[in-house]
């Protein structure tokens, strides 16, 4: 099973590497007020993807922290479970 996972990862890497090699043509990204930036297409796509990931993580951070707080409150209300150690003992 591990071998299949590594083969799948290797295949995905090779496909993405081939995509990056094929898309090295420079593109111009135009901003407001006449500003522009020229970079390879694959770099622009990578930056765009990274910004999207960062925005997605930031958007879900509040929900995740709220769920952690609710889970901690529920665990505290439930009391110790059999077989669990107190955090001070660990």
Structure characterization notes:
The chain has 90 residues and is mainly alpha-helical. It has a domain at 19-76. Helix content is 66%, strand content 11%. A two-stranded antiparallel ribbon has the order 1-2. Strand 1 (26-30) and strand 2 (36-40) form a beta hairpin. The two termini are 35 Å apart.
Strand-helix topology:
Blueprint: H1 2-22, E1 26-30, E2 36-40, H2 41-78
Antiparallel strand pairs: 1-2
Q: How large is the share of residues in beta strands?
A: 5-15%
Rg? 23 Å
Low-confidence stretches: none
Query: How many β-strand runs?
Result: 2
Query: H/E series, N to C?
Result: HEEH
Kindly report the spatial arrangement of strands forming the biggest sheet.
Answer: 1-2
C-alpha geometry: flat
Main β-sheet: number of strands, strand sense, barrel status?
Answer: 2 strands, antiparallel
Share of residues in helices: 55-70%
Structural class: mainly alpha
């Amino acid at each position: 099973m591990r071998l299949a996972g590594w083969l799948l990862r290797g295949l995905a890497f090779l496909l993405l590497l081939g995509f990056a090699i094929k898309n090295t043509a420079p593109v111009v990204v135009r901003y407001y007020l006449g500003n522009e930036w020229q970079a390879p297409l694959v770099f622009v796509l990578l930056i765009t993807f990274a910004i999207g990931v960062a925005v997605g993580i930031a958007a879900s951070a509040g929900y995740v922290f709220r769920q952690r707080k609710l889970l901690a409150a529920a665990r505290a209300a439930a009391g110790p479970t059999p077989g669990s150690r107190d955090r001070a003992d660990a």
